[in-house]
Amino acid sequence: MKYTKFGKTGIEVSKMCLGTWGIGGAGWDNYSDESRMDAIKAALDCGINFIDTAPAYNAGKAEQYVGETLHKLGARKEVVISTKCGNEFIDGKYVRCGSADKILRECDESLQNLKTDYIGLCHYRRYFIGINKKIKKDNIITEEEIKYIMSKYDLILPKKSGFFTNFTIYKQYQYAHKKKDLDLVKNIIEEYYPEYIISFNKVMKQRKAYFYNMFIMSKPMFDSYCEWLFDILFKLENKIDVEKYSNYQKRVFGFLSERLFNVWIDKQNLKICELDIINLEKNNTIRDKIYSFFKNRRIYG
Questions:
Q1: How far apart are CA 284 and CA 301, in angstroms?
Q2: Which residue of 67, 140, 151, 296 has the fewest C-beta atoms within 10 A of its own C-beta?
Q3: Which residues neighbour 275 within 8 Å (Cβ) at sequence distance 6 or greater?
Q4: What is the dihedral of CA 176, 179, 184, 189, to 10 degrees?
Q5: Stretch 201-213: mean pLDDT, rounded?
Q6: What is the rounded distance in angstroms from the CA atom of residue 113 to the CA atom of residue 107?
């Protein structure tokens, strides 16, 4: 078997990946559960360490076969698993849905099906740089570096950054987005999470924050954060009408979650490792940033 690096992650995977749509089965064959798991084991015996699956493959059965096989062999740490979300097989038809609550539910179901306790989210353009390394593509953080850092810290975050205008977090949101949305969030926190209001007010007065919705943390911590965050955002969703917003301002929940993440972090007592990040897209010039700032100001939204 030949192996290659998985992008810039530093993870080595087999050039051949085992797909499990057929292994999942959906009434088109009579193979036993043991036969399906034997097929997965045979792939591992051949040197394959990369498995692709999905909860939509026979309503999670494919994931379950993968999870059960790796559990019996004790091979979870030696295998890279790729799974998906947003697609369900209902009444003989595939139904697509990428809502926030469904994504969270499918993450939990996949963790159970695969008998694993960790899951990763890949950011589409920004990546963490390894410790004390120059900011370039070849230095994207590796799995080994992540494990080392997480053995000493609670979570990994990008270094704090501010705005070229030197605005506070609150004032920048007021100028770039819709101030009333942030004020509504404050009201929701005051009513439902009053223990966070001191942190909220503190963060709004700061001039730097953790942006990009990037982090590496344990699943229990991730679950705790998401439970808090999405409850606030769902309550806000019932109070605003984004259909009247510009396409840019319709990203309101993402913009707010960046600020709310800092509120949540401030309330916790966590040991944080801050790292540089790299943007694989073309970096904006100062001129581009100034143009974007005025283009996306509230008066356009």
A1: 22
A2: 151
A3: 128, 129, 130, 131, 141, 156, 157, 158, 159
A4: 70
A5: 95
A6: 10
C-alpha distances in angstroms, 185 versus 41, 163, 188?
Answer: 50, 22, 5
Residues 6+ positions from 248 with CB-CB distance below 8 Å: 296, 300, 301
* Helix/strand/coil for 290: helix
27-36: b or e for each residue (b if 16 or more CB lie within 10 Å)?
eeeeeeeeeb
Q: Quick check: 38 and 32 in contact, CB under 8 A?
A: no
Residue partners of 217: CB distance under 8 A and separation at least 6: 154, 155, 156, 225
φ/ψ of residue 181, rounded to 5: -65, -40
Half-sphere exposure of 179 toward its Cβ, with a 13 Å CA cutoff?
A: 8
Give tens-digit pLDDT for 65-83: 999 999 999 999 899 998 8
Interatomic CA distance for residues 252 and 239, integer angstroms: 13
**Tokens matching residue 227:** 């439970």
pTM over 0.90: no
CB 13 within 8 A of CB 3: yes
Query: If DSSP codes are grouped into helix, strand and coil, which group holds residue 18?
Result: strand
Give CA angle at 183 (179, 189), nearest 5°: 150
Using the structure block, give the residue that is written with the tokens 């692709």: 52
- 3-state helix vs strand vs coil in the chain, percent to 5: 50, 15, 35
Looking up tokens 């559990």 gives: 71
Token pair belonging to 237: 């969703």
pLDDT tens digits for range 98-114 = 676 778 888 889 999 99
According to DSSP, the residues that pair with 82 across neighbouring strands are: 52
Strand partners, 161: 209
End-to-end CA distance of the chain: 54
Reduced to 3 states, what is the DSSP secondary structure of residue 93?
strand
- Cβ neighbour number for residue 127 with a 10 Å cutoff: 22
CB 45 within 8 A of CB 16: no
